[in-house]
Amino acid sequence: MTVEGSVTAVVVRLKLSLLRNGLRQSAGRRAAYVFSVVVVLLIAALQFLGLIALRGNTHAASVTVLLLAVMALGWAVMPLFFPSGDETLDPTRLVMLPLRPRPLVRALLAASLVGIGPLFTLSLLVGSVIAVARGGAAFVVSLVAVPLALLVCVALARAVAAANIRLLSSRKGRDLAVLSGLVIAVGAQLVNFGVQQIGTAGLGRLDPVAEVLVWVPPASAVGAVDAASAGSYGIAFAQLALSAGALVLLLRSWSRTLTRLMTSPDGSTLQAAEPAGKGERTSGGLARLLPDGRTGTVMERSLRYAWRDPKTKAAWVTSLAIGLIVPVFNALQGTGSIYFACFAAGMLGIQMYNQFGQDTSAFWMVAMTISSTRDAYVELRGRALALLLISLPYATLVVVLTSALLNDWATLPEALGLSLALLGAMLAAGAWSSARFPYSIPQEGYKNVAPGQSGLATVAIFGGMVGAALLCAPVIALTIWLNVDPGGDRWTWLLLPVGAGYGALLIFLGLRLSAPRTARRLPEILAAVSKG
Questions:
Q1: Membrane-spanning residues where (predicted)?
Q2: Contact between residue 79 and residue 89 where contact means Cβ atoms under 8 Å apart
Q3: Dihedral sign (CA 495, 497, 501, 503)
Q4: Which among 120, 147, 156, 317 is least surrounded, fewest beta carbons within 10 Å?
């Protein structure tokens, strides 16, 4: 065996060892991995059968080209959002080894073919060529197109990850994962919107897009199979050449990046002296508008966490995005209701849950300042006010925007009143749940619950949401009654002040009832949020 072959074999065995040792850590991790494998294989099987069913359809090539383009985009962006998903994505772990970039590229490329993602992509590629291939020449071209497209996807992911590894491994770079919630939320709604449009207008809507993407690697590989089926061998060769050229360029870019990473110093080997006064911070801007005393201090701390802490920021970005996307997209599709705007209040109200767990182990500094029920009440009140500072205008904006899109201004007062009542109920239930069911949020990785506390987190969130729904039931019942009653239309405007007042009352009572429990259970809360 050559030296390069030996390096490849070692790196592939390393990938398998990392996977095996990771599964040995806990039964829960093994169960989660097995479950994910089963789900992915099931989706891959259904996708494979669906693509085979497209065989003979006039628009089969358009569908397969678009699917492969979306898959390639996923391979490009996933390493940015989930850099810790594969330990071998970080080539800086190998800088101390006497390895040249070219053999290392081959070894890492081979290791990248081991996993669920490549298997899923291979299933899509095989199903795609079966859907579009007609004749012996097309199937011969597919023998080259399938592995070529798979290698382009894998090399694209590796090249992107290597080019951004310094950013992804830094503290600020981890904030990039915050965008994942927004991208997934927006992407899911865009896919839903696109599917509905296709359902009404037919697959022909994809043809103009596919005519462009068929010349973009790696989708051009599937285009080559379709071109060979039509007897256009020159076009098929050109499209295969595009994919092959893209693979060569990606491998060269990856190799140059590896050379730079393995030979250039980084921040850990250079001493950086920060200019005097550069790191000093003074309170200003919004802080000047906050109340004095502990309430203002707690509000400022909560807002700083929402802006600086990656996980808190991720939760906020996801809630803000989904809270707007669900009502707006449903309104644009013509199937929405103004009551969908309450989704924004519900998503933002979730941020009140597990307030102390969001502080992680730093909560002990807060606990040291709580010596009475009054201290606990002011602490909870400051956190609730910080959340209201963002959620109250945002929920109002979403209701108004949804009303404008639906041209349903008459229902605006009752929808806004119901939204404000729901927000108050969520904050009240969240304050009580934070004191009764606190749990730890790991600082590293992408887990939001420490091992062994999943059941507690489920009870805290879903139990609290059920409690919030029950608290909001009187306003919901009043809304239904006024809409059902023949003469109730004249009084629906009262739902706005009633909902706002009821929501404020719920927040006040929720904080008052949660404060004594918080003060009494400080040691247990501190122990719970410091785990993991």
A1: 31-54, 60-82, 103-131, 137-164, 176-195, 230-251, 314-332, 338-356, 384-406, 418-435, 456-481, 493-511
A2: yes
A3: positive
A4: 147
| C-alpha to C-alpha distance for 218 and 66, rounded to whole angstroms | 11
Cα–Cα dist 398/478, whole Å: 22
Q: How far apart are CA 200 and CA 94, in angstroms?
A: 53
CA angle 364, 283, 172 (to 5 degrees): 65
- Taking the C-alpha atoms of residue 519 and residue 516, their distance in angstroms, rounded to an integer, is 5
Distance of CA 285 to the CA centre of its chain: 30
CA nearest neighbour of 101 among 211, 244, 257:
257
> With contact defined as beta carbons under 8 Å apart, do 361 and 529 qualify?
yes
Q: Angle between the 310-332 and 373-406 helix axes, to the nearest 10 degrees?
A: 30
- For residues 236 and 228, give the distance between their C-alpha atoms in angstroms, rounded to a whole number: 6
pTM: 0.61
Q: Residue 9 contacts by C-beta under 8 Å, 6 or more apart in sequence?
A: 1
Please report the DSSP string for 319-363 in residue order. HHHHHHHHHHHHHHTT---GGGGHHHHHHHHGGGTTTTGGGGGGH
The separation between CA 495 and the C-alpha centre of its own chain, rounded to angstroms, equals 35
Question: For every one of its 532 residues, what pLDDT tens digit does the chain have, with 9 covering 90 and above?
Answer: 555 557 788 878 877 887 777 667 667 667 767 877 888 889 889 888 988 888 888 888 888 888 888 888 888 877 666 554 455 556 666 666 667 777 888 888 888 888 888 889 999 999 999 999 888 898 899 999 999 999 999 998 888 877 776 655 555 555 555 555 556 556 666 656 655 555 555 566 677 778 888 898 888 999 999 899 988 899 999 999 999 999 999 999 888 888 877 776 555 444 444 444 444 444 455 667 788 888 888 999 888 888 877 778 878 888 888 888 888 888 877 777 888 889 899 989 989 998 888 887 788 888 888 889 999 999 999 999 999 999 999 999 999 999 988 888 888 999 999 999 999 999 999 999 988 888 888 766 556 676 667 677 777 778 778 888 899 999 999 988 888 877 777 888 889 999 999 999 999 999 999 999 999 988 888 888 877 5
* Token code pair at residue 98: 């006497």
Per the rule left: phi > 0, alpha: psi between -120 and 50, beta: everything else, 521 is: alpha
- In the chain, the amino acid numbered 299 is M
Give the ranges where 54-81 is alpha helix by DSSP (H): 60-81
